[in-house]
Specification:
The chain folds into 2 domains: 165 residues, Jelly Rolls; 90 residues, Arc Repressor Mutant, subunit A, CATH 1.10.10. 41% of the residues lie in helices and 18% in strands. Helix 2 packs antiparallel against helix 3, helix 5 packs across helix 6 and helix 7 crosses helix 9.
């Protein structure tokens, strides 16, 4: 795997920010970063997102605010990469720089809360509840607006988020600067390996060898960079996939256990409840 990429968002002299509509076989795969703040609504897709040290499943309807120079990637499930797959990865994203609004814009009494929000975006933010519903409606109609209306709607969106109490911060601390290239490359290799092989047995020594480290050094390295143990990370990937399978009703719970890489049902049930707060049976009843 190559090191995380600095992604260049195309500039335009006609507008102060960029609106991007994605309709792809799968999302842009490499871990990457850019100086623009990114607001993304997932219209159709599922997989695992890596945002800063946050590792979480994503699916249709998710709305995320990703701060400047925060390494991130939306990696689709394996089925998206299979030949003949009819699955689509669709999203609406807005890319903008805080300075595009002018040096004192967010010092105004009416916009100070937005300025605070944009500063906090370096942690990565998930928007939920009524705020997500309102913003999703606006974004789904963005094509209908003139350039000026889009600008005003962006301010409205940021204002909605800044006044919402239904937000989840993805990172435990504000992201200041990217990891070193060599560290990012190792993390990217590990992410890539696990997302492709989580349904198989994965031994700690096998993953440590990918990073060219001893098991002890690797465990310390991974915990420092992601704020979680490798075992928890692996279980979160597996349980995230289990959640998607439970919603589809194609498999029974025992089948899902083995499809996700667990080797016994009691361990699967225990880990599922630790991570989601529900048993698999409760989760299926709640979301299906």
């Amino acid at each position: 795997m190559s090191k995380p990429l600095f992604f260049k968002v195309p500039d335009s002299k006609e507008v102060s920010f960029r609106v991007q509509y994605d309709d792809l076989d799968y999302f842009y795969s490499p871990l990457h970063l850019h100086p623009e703040i990114q607001l993304s609504l997932i219209l159709e897709s599922e997989g695992t997102s890596f945002i800063g040290e946050s590792i979480r499943p994503f699916s249709e309807g998710d709305l995320l605010l990703i701060g400047p120079n925060l390494p991130h990637v939306f990696r689709n499930d394996k089925s998206y990469y299979q030949k003949g797959s009819e699955k689509r990865a669709r999203a609406i994203s807005i890319f903008f720089k805080q300075e595009a609004f002018g040096p004192n814009f967010f010092s105004l009494p009416e916009t100070q809360k937005i300025g605070t929000l944009l500063s906090a975006s370096t942690r990565g933010i998930e928007i939920m509840g009524e705020a997500r519903n309102k913003i999703s409606y606006i974004l789904n109609h963005f094509r209908d607006y003139s350039n000026l209306d889009r600008f005003l709607q962006l301010i409205k969106i940021l204002d909605i988020i800044s006044h919402s109490s239904d937000l989840a911060y993805l990172s435990s601390y504000k992201h200041q600067e990217p990891l070193k290239d060599v560290d990012n490359q190792k993390i990217e290799q590990i992410f890539d390996f696990v997302t492709k092989n989580f349904d198989q047995e994965i031994r700690l020594e096998e993953v440590a060898s990918l990073a060219n480290m001893s098991i002890t050094t690797f465990c310390r390295f991974f915990k420092q960079r992601t704020q979680k143990t490798f075992t928890l990370f692996l279980n979160e990937i597996r349980i995230g996939h289990a959640c998607r399978l439970l919603k589809e009703e194609q498999y029974n719970i025992s089948q899902i256990c083995y499809e996700c890489g667990f080797n016994n049902i009691s361990n699967f049930n225990r880990k599922f409840k630790e991570i989601t707060g529900h048993t698999p049976k409760q989760y299926r009843k709640k979301f299906v």
